[in-house]
Amino acid sequence: MIAQFPNLSSFPDDGIAVVIGASGGIGHASVDALRASGRFKIVHALSRRSNPPIDITDETSIQAAVEWVQADDLPIRLVLDCTGFLHDRDHGGPEKSYRRLDPAHMAHAFAVNAIGPAMMMKHILPLLPRTGKAAFATLSAKVGSITDNHFGGWYSYRASKAALNQLVRTAAIELSRRQGETLCVAIHPGTTDTALSEPFSKTGLTVRSSAETATRLLNVIDRLESADSGGFFNHDGTPLPW
């Protein structure tokens, strides 16, 4: 049975946790769980609505938010990126056929799901401490797995999450040369009762609350070791195929 809140005891208790996308369901629940754990001296909740705000599609905004976190002058131990795009009013929903491919939709999917997290890694990974456990974890998706793609569809979402997985893997290799105890991982959160997943939830599909998903994700991160860096993991901790 999953504990109500993870204790995150694998992390030193001297630092900061940062959640990006904290206004969303999983992000908000992750902030609550991190604060309840008592493991971090500060838990920053960043989103477009926070102060300072962060826009994952604007590198200047990302850099400013990272500099604001850095001003606390404490080790940044955990960064959890909960941003993501699947559908919205302005850009529509996932494509069921290549006949529905649209450049604007594709560009937005890559901007949010791949380029934004890449810019976050660019600015925050160099600040993670060289000693003691530290982690950058981003929410990917099982449908981003090329090996596991047996049904097709959802072109932009699949491709942008596959790109994210490659970015995570590549960054992890570079980190291993400089910050050997730092993790960089992608995690599939599973179907969660959020605005992102709600239109696509199927009858009989296991749908978890944001609080349960957040706890599962943080428990996975807590169990991961430096040798796991660069991996793609399910919400239960099992590795997923690329």
UniProtKB/TrEMBL annotation:
It holds the Pfam family adh_short_C2. SUPFAM superfamilies: NAD(P)-binding Rossmann-fold domains. It comes from the Bacteria. One of its GO terms (cellular component) is cytoplasm. InterPro entries: Fungal_SecMetab_SDRs, NAD(P)-bd_dom_sf, SDR_fam. GO terms for molecular function: oxidoreductase activity. PANTHER family: NAD(P)-BINDING ROSSMANN-FOLD SUPERFAMILY PROTEIN, SHORT-CHAIN DEHYDROGENASE/REDUCTASE. This is SDR family oxidoreductase.
